[in-house]
């Protein structure tokens, strides 16, 4: 597939996803209108979500590669709204995505595979399973290595990815208990378009146009190391005890350059967001003093102007997470009780760096061309415990699932240089938050094949550590509290021999959404919890097995997502645009209608699937002028219900045929063909109005920017199995 692991989730109702490159890159992703940074993600039951920021981490970091990739999983389950406590993960106000890694199979084999696709895309690698190793009492090992490289469908966006997985299972107690181990190491290197392209440029030079790398470049490298060690111990037929310890390390590097003539306010378009000038404005030399990041480098004197001397920027960052997830299952005659928890800590810093210069061939010396003090440190410690019960009544036709999660979070952010302070002394801002999150689920078997169900859950997402800052006008020293959701869902499910149908409705009220603004009464800059949002909608999904060979599956969903009050907010799913919203405004880039239909055929060694998806119109955004008298609205990005991004259909085709081989070593060869966007539709995945930014102000005339979607992508694969 040309897309990341997240593209698989589009088979789920109310899921919208896109990304700007080929391969396992960071997507823009919503579930029922809730953006990725507000969702929980788990990997074999451990939190995969960044504890400090949510999602994969801070904005413009960890954008290439990911902790887990498509070939490393064997299952995904989406729990929209609020999941039961034992499946909820950490910190969500809109849903949980649960991944399970590929476990060592019972059978021994080795596969080698290769794929060749459009845009000079090729993938190759191997996977191998030991089966049960003789003399080890059942030890099984599985490993997989894959490499992908591509030129990208947007011009000048080459990328390389390497994914490695190792897993092992060792049963004991006659197979009733087991120890498991998983090691994942994924790396990526890719050039991105850090800003959407002006639509006028796309219309002039072609929809996939991008500036040459010699004129504008944003290179990112990412490394992701994950280790999980687990044990599941059978006590007796009533009690099962398990625990998993985990370690996650993420490293991100970014190098950005923009030709100075494009930085100038006379150039009408915003070409990049990765140079130093767009983030900091003029940077004259500074002298070392408490709370000041010193740099003796003079950009104007060295390169002739501030624009030229600040055309390049490099940034290093990373974080480490350690934790343990214990769980006890108690199985009683009429109920199953689960007690579990999470203790984890993520730390970012000290270390890393941020440097600027007139070219990417730069020295990186603290005190000469440094932008940040590397002694900064952010840390979050999570203490969470839950109790849930599944109760079976009325001859097992009524199922009740009450539960509660209690989560305490301690967060601190040490900032060695207060960019806005006078004097700019260092400071630490932190707090401790605790939330009690109830859950109640109910289902009733109306007949043997018709089930009615309903649930209520409360979720909480704790503030990104980037909000633990003092603002440019002085600030209260209060760090923001968590944002919360009360999620309600009800539905009916039909499960027949050949037909499966599910219809549900949902209502999600979100409270205390994060906001950053200047308080016009107190004169202070505040990070506060003042936003209100509401998501409601209907979802229908189903599958029909026509006969043993043919099956049809599909889904359709309607989502209405709106702001319920006026507040300063992140107004896009990727949070890259900050502005202001008004009560009644719909959330931008959340389609009301999403639908999908798949027709599959499988007979003997041949498999085929034809899929069609529909993404409905989406509200866009616009940037208000800089000269408005209300400072909250001047230069603010706001939803623009008057301009909608056009809807689009996509058609995908998958074909594969396994050829048995009568050979002593090769058991089979499989040929596959994958075509995405079969009809080569032209469409935008992101589209909005923007002002060119210069020295923190919008300049020139507003114009429209956009990201184009993936054109027709053809991939031919070949694999051989040795057994």
UniProtKB/TrEMBL annotation:
<keyword id="KW-0813">Transport</keyword>
<dbReference type="Pfam" id="PF00593">
    <property type="entry name" value="TonB_dep_Rec_b-barrel"/>
</dbReference>
<dbReference type="InterPro" id="IPR000531">
    <property type="entry name" value="Beta-barrel_TonB"/>
</dbReference>
<dbReference type="InterPro" id="IPR037066">
    <property type="entry name" value="Plug_dom_sf"/>
</dbReference>
<keyword id="KW-0998">Cell outer membrane</keyword>
<keyword id="KW-0675">Receptor</keyword>
<keyword id="KW-0408">Iron</keyword>
<keyword id="KW-0472">Membrane</keyword>
<keyword id="KW-0406">Ion transport</keyword>
<dbReference type="GO" id="GO:0009279">
    <property type="term" value="C:cell outer membrane"/>
</dbReference>
<keyword id="KW-0410">Iron transport</keyword>
<keyword id="KW-1134">Transmembrane beta strand</keyword>
<dbReference type="InterPro" id="IPR039426">
    <property type="entry name" value="TonB-dep_rcpt-like"/>
</dbReference>
<comment type="similarity">
    <text>Belongs to the TonB-dependent receptor family.</text>
</comment>
<keyword id="KW-0732">Signal</keyword>
<dbReference type="GO" id="GO:0015344">
    <property type="term" value="F:siderophore uptake transmembrane transporter activity"/>
</dbReference>
<dbReference type="Pfam" id="PF07715">
    <property type="entry name" value="Plug"/>
</dbReference>
<keyword id="KW-0812">Transmembrane</keyword>
<feature type="domain" description="TonB-dependent receptor plug">
    <location>
        <begin position="2"/>
        <end position="93"/>
    </location>
</feature>
<keyword id="KW-0798">TonB box</keyword>
<dbReference type="InterPro" id="IPR036942">
    <property type="entry name" value="Beta-barrel_TonB_sf"/>
</dbReference>
<protein>
    <submittedName>
        <fullName>TonB-dependent receptor</fullName>
    </submittedName>
</protein>
<dbReference type="InterPro" id="IPR012910">
    <property type="entry name" value="Plug_dom"/>
</dbReference>
<feature type="domain" description="TonB-dependent receptor-like beta-barrel">
    <location>
        <begin position="246"/>
        <end position="678"/>
    </location>
</feature>
């Amino acid at each position: 597939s040309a897309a990341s692991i997240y593209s698989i989730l589009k088979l789920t109702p109310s899921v919208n996803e896109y990304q700007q490159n080929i391969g396992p890159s960071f997507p823009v992703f919503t579930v029922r209108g809730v953006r990725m940074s507000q969702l929980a993600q788990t990997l074999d039951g451990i939190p995969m979500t960044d504890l400090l920021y949510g999602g994969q981490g801070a904005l413009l970091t960890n954008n290439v590669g990911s902790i887990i990739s498509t070939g490393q999983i064997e299952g995904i389950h989406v729990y929209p709204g609020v999941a039961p406590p034992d499946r909820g993960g950490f910190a969500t106000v809109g849903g949980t995505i649960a991944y399970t890694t590929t476990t060592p199979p019972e059978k021994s084999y080795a596969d080698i595979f290769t794929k060749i696709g459009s845009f000079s895309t090729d993938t190759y690698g191997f996977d191998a399973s030991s089966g049960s190793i003789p003399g080890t009492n059942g030890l099984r090992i599985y490993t997989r290595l894959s490499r992908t490289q591509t030129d990208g469908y947007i011009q000048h966006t080459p990328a390389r990815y390497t994914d490695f997985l190792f897993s092992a299972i060792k049963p004991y107690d006659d197979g009733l208990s087991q120890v498991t181990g998983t090691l994942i190491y994924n790396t990526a290197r890719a050039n991105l378009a850090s800003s959407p392209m002006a639509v006028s440029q796309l219309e002039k030079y072609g929809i996939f146009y991008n500036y040459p790398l010699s004129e504008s470049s944003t290179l990112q490298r990412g490394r992701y190391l994950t280790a999980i060690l687990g044990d599941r111990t059978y006590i007796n037929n009533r009690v099962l005890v398990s625990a998993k310890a985990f370690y996650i390390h993420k490293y991100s590097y970014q190098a950005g350059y923009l030709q100075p003539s494009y930085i100038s306010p006379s150039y009408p378009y915003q070409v990049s967001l990765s140079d130093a000038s767009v983030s900091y404005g003029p940077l004259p030399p500074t002298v070392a003093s408490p709370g000041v990041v010193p740099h003796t480098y003079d950009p104007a004197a060295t390169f002739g102007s501030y624009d030229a001397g600040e055309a390049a920027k490099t940034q290093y960052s990373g974080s480490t997470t350690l934790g343990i997830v214990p769980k006890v299952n108690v199985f009683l005659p009429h109920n199953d009780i689960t007690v579990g928890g999470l203790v984890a800590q993520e730390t970012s810093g000290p270390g890393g760096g941020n440097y600027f210069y007139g070219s990417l061939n730069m020295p990186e010396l603290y005190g000469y061309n440094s932008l940040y003090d590397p002694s900064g440190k952010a840390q979050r410690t999570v203490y969470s415990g839950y109790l849930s019960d599944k109760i079976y009544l009325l001859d097992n036709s009524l199922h009740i699932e009450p539960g509660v999660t209690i989560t305490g979070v301690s967060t601190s952010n040490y900032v060695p240089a207060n960019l806005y302070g006078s004097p700019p002394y260092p400071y630490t801002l932190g707090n401790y938050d605790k939330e009690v999150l109830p859950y109640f689920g109910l289902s009733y078997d109306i007949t043997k094949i018709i089930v009615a169900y309903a649930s209520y859950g409360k979720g909480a997402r704790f503030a990104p550590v980037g909000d633990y800052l003092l603002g440019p006008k002085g600030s209260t020293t209060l760090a923001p509290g968590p944002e919360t959701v009360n999620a309600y869902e009800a539905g009916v499910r039909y499960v027949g021999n050949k037909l499966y149908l599910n219809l549900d409705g949902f209502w999600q009220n979100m409270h205390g959404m994060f906001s950053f603004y200047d308080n016009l009464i107190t004169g202070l800059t505040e990070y506060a919890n003042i936003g209100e949002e509401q998501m409601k909608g209907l979802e229908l999904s189903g599958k029909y097995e026509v006969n043993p060979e043919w099956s049809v599956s599909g889904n359709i969903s309607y989502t209405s997502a709106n702001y319920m009050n006026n507040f300063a907010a992140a107004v896009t799913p990727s949070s890259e645009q900050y502005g202001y919203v008004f009560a009644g405004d719909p959330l931008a880039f959340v389609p009301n209608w999403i639908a999908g239909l798949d027709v599959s055929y499988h007979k003997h060694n041949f498999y085929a699937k034809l899929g069609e998806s529909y993404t409905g119109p989406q509200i866009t955004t616009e940037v208000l002028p800089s000269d408005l008298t209300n400072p909250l609205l001047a230069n603010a990005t706001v939803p623009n219900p008057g301009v909608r991004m056009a809807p689009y259909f996509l058609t995908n085709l998958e074909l594969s045929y396994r050829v048995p081989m009568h050979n002593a070593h090769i058991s089979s060869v499989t040929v596959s063909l994958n075509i995405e966007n079969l009809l080569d539709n032209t469409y935008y995945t992101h589209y909005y109005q923007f002002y060119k930014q210069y020295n923190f102000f919008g300049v020139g005339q507003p114009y429209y920017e956009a990201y184009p979607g993936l054109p027709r992508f053809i991939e031919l694969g070949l694999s051989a199995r040795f057994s």
